[in-house]
Amino acid sequence: MLKIEGLTAEIDGKQILKGIDLEVPQGEIHAVMGPNGSGKSTLSYVLAGREGYEVTGGTATFNGHDLLAMEPEERATTGLFLAFQYPVELPGVGNANFLRTALNAIRRGKGEPELDAMQFLKLARARMKELSMPEDMLKRGVNVGFSGGEKKRNEVLQMALLRPGLAILDETDSGLDIDALKIVADGVNAMRGPEFSSLVITHYQRLLNYIVPDRVHVLMNGRIVQSGGPELAKSLEETGYTAVQAA
Amino acid sequence: MPAVTETIDAVQSVTEGPYKYGFETDIEMEFAPKGLSEDIVRFISAKKNEPAWLLEWRLKAYAIWLKMEEPVWAAVDYPKIDYQASYYYAAPVKKAGPKSLDEVDPELLRTYAKLGIPLKEQAILAGVEGAGDTPAEGGRMPIAVDAVFDSVSVATTFRARLEKEGIIFCPISEAVQNHPELVKQYLGSVVPQGDNFFAALNSAVFTDGSFVYIPKGVRCPMELSTYFRINAKSTGQFERTLIIADAGSHVSYLEGCTAPMRDENQLHAAVVELVAHDDATIKYSTVQNWYPGDENGKGGIYNFVTKRGACRGARSKISWTQVETGSAITWKYPSCILLGEDSVGEFYSVAITNNYQQADTGTKMFHIGPRTRSTIVSKGISAGHGQNTYRGLVKISPKAVGARNFTQCDSLLIGDQCGAHTVPYIENRCMTAKVEHEATTSRIAEDQLFYCRQRGLTQEDAVGLIVNGFCREVLKELPMEFAVEAQKLLQISLEGSVG
Predict the structure, then answer these.
(1) Residue B7: closest CA among chain A residues belongs to which residue?
(2) Residue A130 falls within a domain, yes or no?
(3) Are residues B5 and A96, on separate chains, in Cβ contact within 8 Å?
(4) Which domain holds residue A167?
(5) CA-to-CA distance for A47 and A68, rounded, in angstroms?
(6) Does residue B239 lie in a domain region?
(7) Rounded to whole angstroms, how far apart are CA atoms A25 and B218?
(8) Does residue A101 sit within a domain?
(9) Do residues B213 and B186 lie in contact, with contact meaning Cβ atoms separated by under 8 Å?
(10) Are A109 and A63 within 8 A, CB to CB?
(11) According to the 3-state scheme, what is the secondary structure of chain A?
(12) Is residue A219 part of a domain?
């Protein structure tokens, strides 16, 4: 379970998160919605441990582990996965090589045996088939020359391979057409289970038609201002964020 | 695929310290008196029992060298070298008797074993027979090795097997005795004695190195390799390598180099000459891992090397691939003289400078024959206080009708104390020639590191992965076994450069 209490953080001295309280119990999927500049991406980066995001107060734990005390790679081996809003290109680094390196790093961290090239390929091919990804994506450079949709699918493939306990999806729906959106949603839904929880960060309600969340939280101006069931997302779509702000 | 996918395993299997070849072999050595003089030149020549013409050749080089000035145009900074403070000849004392592998001092065999250099033919051959018909499944291909220890070659493997094909692979000192006509014909024909200060010095005092002759139409059945080891203190290594590929032949050759860790700087001034006749191909790969000095810039090898190949024949090809991770100072410009029509020159380079290392390296492509083509891909990586300069010349003569060159120079910076410099010269005197030059400078971006770390990679593994990706175009040119070795080396060379 992810437990965030009174979390405050700043970038370059500017306070962005102003006291976040949030709990995502194991097995649940929660959505965080909010307008641009509300602190959604900052929240995901702070949880993942990106440099330049300074935590000034509060706590964040995952299954009892103090996330804020760990290096980014330690958080990853603890089971935290961040699907990037803008997946990064690694020129010259083969996608298969990268995926296997990451998978084996996580497996080492969990004390599981590493996979050799053949075992990995077998696993990767199976997962790619589920995600309708062409196999040649394994041979290409990491995200190099990928379309926006391919990059997001590559993120979901990584998630499917690494099998995290907590996946944070940072606006994974942005820039996706409806088919790609369905594939991404299917990828997340396939992960659903008692050992998997997720924080789906999104600007629009659209994605939540396909990934139905257990709870919806509205983030505005660095705070959670409203929480509710899946119906909250729908009413937001009709009334807009300004209505919440006024309330 | 395997070379790439196995990289990370290979990298992770390396747990040794930053420079694992820094040990010293304790062995009885024979030295010439310290310093350089005509007498020393005569001493070396006499030691090698050389014919009079070669002594004359050396003395001429020495006379030229005395009149020359050390070059200062390279972007490297080092205290003045005292040429009288080095030993110019140092050799392990040899027991009397016939020269075979069994006669080699076991201490030397242990040294090379420790360096991972196979000097035992039997063991390797057995391994290959085991791999049998499926070499692609990872069976080690046999590699013939010439091992040069300080001033002399101590062993050369697979000679009998190569002789069956008419291939000569032996120490150059032996070639002088057994194939004087070939040595006389080609020695200094690509790099003349007076070519430059360090080539002149080498011509006067070279002690050993490898000699390769591939006869007409023969495709060399295995990789040839020379492994250079500087061991003795205060000793310079001056090796001379000469490779001749006769018409229609093909050879792939690799050199590797290491040296013990010492506080003093040691000089290495080599000359390599390649000659490719009609339709011949020479692929020359270097993994240079001389001791680079410590993290404060103390010690390390001064590497002043002249490498040049002549594509004399039509459709001949010379390809240089180098991975330069070692040395305190690297001064090196493997070049191609493209004489034959439709001949091809290639230069693929990765140069890493970390801590206080300085590298001034690049290539020269002389397009003389019609339709000659050259490709230059240079990847410079600077970290710590390292300074990395690409210096290259593409010269196209009026007769080189339809000549083409493509040059790509990429620099990667790690940290904010290092430097990358690109100095390309292009002299085109032919209207129909086409010359392209691309250059980029980049940093390892914070978002790339964070992306990798979020996937569970440590900072250093992430840097290794990104750097290997950056160098991929060059590493894929290496023979596979060495590609893996080189990838390991890149990571080790950058240890501690981030964070």
Answers:
(1) A97
(2) no
(3) yes
(4) 2-88+163-246
(5) 7
(6) yes
(7) 71
(8) no
(9) no
(10) no
(11) CEEEEEEEEEECCEEEEEEEEEEECCCCEEEEECCCCCCHHHHHHHHHCCCCCEEEEEEEEECCEEHHHCCHHHHHHHCEEEECCCCCCEEEEEHHHHHHHHHHHHHHHHCCCCCCHHHHHHHHHHHHHHCCCCHHHHCCEECCCCCHHHHHHHHHHHHHHHCCCEEEEECCCCCCCHHHHHHHHHHHHHHCECCEEEEEEECCCHHHHCCCCCEEEEEECCEEEEEECCHHHHHHHHHCHHHHHHC
(12) yes
The values of phi and psi at residue B433, to 5°, are -80, 155
Query: Which residue from A73, A92, A105 is facing B470, i.e. has the nearest CB?
Result: A92
The DSSP output letter for B270 is -
For residue A54, tell me if it sits in a domain: yes
State how far the Cα of B278 lies from the Cα of B373, in Å rounded to an integer.
15
* Domain residue limits at B199: 2-332
Q: Are B321 and B356 in contact (CB under 8 A)?
A: no
Q: With H, G, I as helix, E, B as strand and everything else as coil, classify residue B132.
A: coil
How many domains in chain A?
1
B311 belongs to a structural domain: yes
In a domain, B439, yes or no: no
Identity of the residue in A50, A73, A87 whose CB atom sits nearest the CB atom of B458: A73
**Domain total in chain B:** 1
Q: Count CB neighbours of A130 within 10 A.
A: 15
Beta strands in B80-125 (DSSP E): 90-92
- Residue A168 contacts by C-beta under 8 Å, 6 or more apart in sequence? A44, A47, A48, A80, A81, A82, A83, A198, A199, A201
Pairing of strands B335-338, B300-311: parallel
E-strand spans in B429-486? Answer: 434-443
Domain CATH number, residue A12: 3.40.50.300
What chain A residue is nearest to B459 in terms of C-alpha separation?
A73
CB contact under 8 A, B454 and A94: no
Question: Per residue of chain B (499 residues), what is the pLDDT tens digit?
Answer: 333 333 333 333 333 346 667 677 776 777 778 888 999 999 999 988 999 999 999 999 999 999 999 888 888 888 888 888 888 887 776 644 335 566 667 776 776 666 666 665 543 433 333 333 333 333 445 677 777 776 666 677 788 888 999 999 998 999 999 999 999 999 999 999 999 999 999 999 998 888 999 999 999 988 888 887 766 666 778 889 999 999 999 999 988 866 666 667 778 889 999 999 999 999 999 888 877 778 887 888 888 999 999 999 999 999 999 988 888 888 999 999 999 999 999 999 998 888 888 889 999 999 999 999 999 999 998 888 888 999 999 999 999 999 999 999 999 988 888 888 999 999 999 999 999 999 988 888 889 999 999 999 998 889 889 988 898 888 888 877 677 777 777 777 776 666 4
**DSSP calls for B314-369:** TT-EEEEEEEE---SEEEE--EEEE-STT-EEEEEEEEEE-TT-EEEE--EEEE-S
Q: Residue A78 in contact with residue A62, Cβ under 8 Å? A: yes
Q: Which two tokens stand for residue A186?
A: 């299917």
List the one residue out of B260, B277, B103 whose CA is nearest residue B190: B277
Angstrom CA distances, B387 to A187, B327, B384, stand at 47, 12, 9
The residue of A71, A90, A114, A122 whose CB has the most chain B CBs within 10 angstroms, and thus the best one to mutate to test that interface, is A90
Say whether the ipTM exceeds 0.85. Answer: yes
Residue B271 belongs to some domain of the structure: yes
Q: Among residues B1, B7, B5, B6, which one has the least CA distance to residue B487?
A: B7
Residues of B with CB under 8 A from a CB of A: 1-2, 4-8, 445-448, 450-459, 461, 465-466, 468-473
Nearest-neighbour CA in chain B from A78: distance (Å): 9
* Sign of the alpha-carbon dihedral angle for B96, B98, B100, B102: negative
H/E segment holding residue B427 = strand B419-428
